[in-house]
Amino acid sequence: MTMHGLFISFEGIDGAGKSTHIAGLANAFRAEGRAVTLTREPGGTPLAEKLRAMVLGDPMDPLTEALLIFAARRDHLVNVIAPALLRGDVVLCDRFTDASFAYQGAGRGFDLNVLSTLEQWVQSDEGLLGDPAGNKPMRPEVETVIEPHLTVWFDLPPEEAALRLADARVPDKFEAQPVEFFRRVAQGYADRQQGHPERFARIAASQTRENVWQAVRQVIVEKGWLEGPACHE
Ligand SMILES: Nc1ncnc2c1ncn2[C@@H]1O[C@H](COP(=O)(O)OP(=O)(O)O)[C@@H](O)[C@H]1O
Ligand SMILES: Cc1cn([C@H]2C[C@H](O)[C@@H](COP(=O)(O)OP(=O)(O)O)O2)c(=O)[nH]c1=O
Predict the structure, then answer these.
(1) What's the whole-number mean pLDDT along residues 38-46?
(2) Which of the listed residues 20, 41, 154, 163 should we mutate to test ligand 1's pocket, taking the one with most ligand atoms within 8 A of CB?
(3) Which intervals hold domain Thymidylate kinase-like (predicted)?
(4) Buried b vs exposed e over 117-137: b needs ≥16 C-beta within 10 Å?
(5) ipTM entry
(6) Most buried residue, 54, 99, 148, 231, by most Cβ within 10 Å?
(7) How do residues 92-131 score in pLDDT, each as one tens digit?
(8) Does residue 170 or residue 224 have the better pLDDT?
(9) How far apart are CA 10 and CA 216, in angstroms?
C-alpha cells in the first residue's frame, strides 16, 4: 500500500494571504474530479484543535509549545493526513512543520536540532500505513518521514502583513507579536526554503489578490497537477 495522494502545505507569516487562496485551489482540484481534504495546523482533528486553542491562547515555555504542536501534528497525521493520502486525496494543509521551524525556531529561538528530532519522530510513517480495513499496520521496507510534496510559501514583508491584519481580526498570541518577531519568522521561512529548494515554491505575496492567485495556480499547473482554465472559486 502506498500513499498515492498529493500533500500540499501553505506557509507564510500571519496576514500573508494564504487563507484567501486555499479554498480557491480546493475548488480548482474538485472541478477536475479530485477528492480534496482541506485541513490546517495546529488542528485538523478534535484533539489537535484543543491543543491549538492552548498553543494560541496560553503563555508557555518554548519546549512545552513545541511538544504540544508536534503532539497535535501526530494526531492529525494519524487520523486525517495519512488516511487521506492513502485514499488518493489532494490534501491542502494550511501550515505544517515549516511553521514550527519558522515560529518556534526562528521566531522564539527554540533549538532547531530538537525540532528536527521531533520532525523525524512525529512524521515517521511507522504506524501510519494500515491495511485498507484499518487493521494491522503494514511496515514498509524502509521507514520514511512524511512531508509535503509541495510547500507554497507566501512571502510578504512583515510591515505589509501588519497593515493587512490591523483591522482584519482580533490577534491571537502570535499575531500580537511585534514586527521584529515576524522579521525573524520570515527569515526562518527563507532558511527553510534554502534547505528544501525542491519542495518550496515562493510566491511574491505583495501583488494583487488576482495576481497572487494566478501565481499559485501556475505553480500547481507546472507540476502537472492541474489542467483546466484559470478560475477563482
Ligand atoms: N493580495 C492581497 N492584497 C491585499 N490584501 C490581501 C491580499 N490577500 C489577502 N489580503 C487580505 O489580508 C488579510 C490577511 O489575509 P489571509 O488570507 O487571512 O492571510 P493568512 O491566512 O496568510 O494569515 C485579509 O484581510 C485578506 O482579505
Ligand atoms: C503550524 C504552526 C502554527 N503556528 C502558529 C502560526 C500562526 O500564528 C498560528 C495559527 O496559524 P493560522 O492557522 O495561519 O492562523 P489564522 O487562521 O488565524 O491565520 O499558529 C506555530 O507557531 N507553529 C506551528 O507549527
Answers:
(1) 98
(2) 20
(3) 10-120, 143-214
(4) ebbeebbebeebbbeeeeeee
(5) 0.97
(6) 99
(7) 999 999 999 999 999 999 999 999 999 999 999 887 766 5
(8) 224
(9) 10
